[in-house]
Design goal:
Three copies of one chain form a homotrimer.
Chain A lengths: L1 E5 L14 E5 L3 E9 L11 H18 L7 E8 L5 H12 L5 E6 L2 E2 L6 E8 L1
Parallel strand pairs in A: 4-5
Antiparallel strand pairs in A: 1-2, 3-7, 4-7
Chain lengths: ~130, ~130, ~130
């Protein structure tokens, strides 16, 4: 599988460390990840946005690992946050944990998630 | 096509009958379904959430059928509801109609859909 | 790559120029596009919804072009608008700029986007 980022110079660059488009050639496997939320294995939920975001990403990385993939296999991520004030933090945490990998990305503010305690949900598509 | 569910034991299990990740190998065909809403062929809309949800799923199954696929081909579903009170019902209806098939799933509460009468929209990705 | 639209006659037809489902066979390349917003290269943002929508589509077409694709390669688009009053306009602009190509489509109203000046975000998946 070859993944190629597209950021045409005629366009405004991405607003943080992601790519405007990500092209995949020769994928043999695709992995669709459910929206992950910040619920730990024991059912507890970090009270703060950063804690929930870090938990979401840890779960995404664990699911990638279960499929024999790693963060470099991520092609697209979609973030849903419930508070617009968390947008900057979402980008900071994503960019830090991606360690230089820049998948395509969509980020929107939703009216809510499946549980009122949750303030972020992140899904992803990966390929190998 | 081989679809393999990933639910790593180190993570909190899914909150209902879906998979944290769904991996696809050897897909020859992919089907992307538009967000389906609870509008019947005659243009009428069930007034209740359950009726709209059942209509959405019936339409998804009809489109899968038109492509020579069935519910076991579903890899990812995304649900958009306009009322957080319908979250539990959404899961109940999905789990009942999936009959044991557990695709990846994302579920968010949105501020609205394209018509104020609509209270649920469901899209899906399938592979064969 | 062969793309085939599915609009089963037993279902209510699409509400504008899109397809209920879009099937892809024999794809060698997939392109996932980040949600595009109406920010021009110089950082300015059209104040009106139509201007922002046209900018989103222009960016999508530029990214497709960078990947050696064109609008006929678009399989699925997802539109996020922040104001329900813009739904009709969203469909008009999309249908006009698609020039007869009818990908699968989802359209939802979100509580906000990553910047309060943005009133529309559009992402897409394409194949070749």
């Amino acid at each position: 599988m070859i993944a190629k980022a597209h950021n045409p110079p005629s366009l405004h660059p991405p607003f943080s460390a992601y790519s405007l488009g990500m092209e995949v050639s020769g994928a043999e496997r695709w992995l669709h990840l459910s929206g992950q939320v910040g619920v730990r294995k024991d059912g507890s939920v970090p009270p703060d946005a950063e804690g929930q975001m870090e938990e979401c990403w840890a779960k995404i990385f664990a699911i990638l690992d279960a499929a024999g993939m790693e963060k470099a296999n991520m092609i697209k991520v979609t973030g849903y946050v419930t508070r617009s004030d968390d947008i900057g933090l979402f980008r900071q945490v994503r960019d830090r944990l991606m360690e230089g990998h820049e998948p395509a990305s969509t980020l929107v503010v939703v009216a809510g998630l499946a549980n009122p305690d949750w303030i972020v949900e992140i899904e992803a598509v990966a390929a190998a």
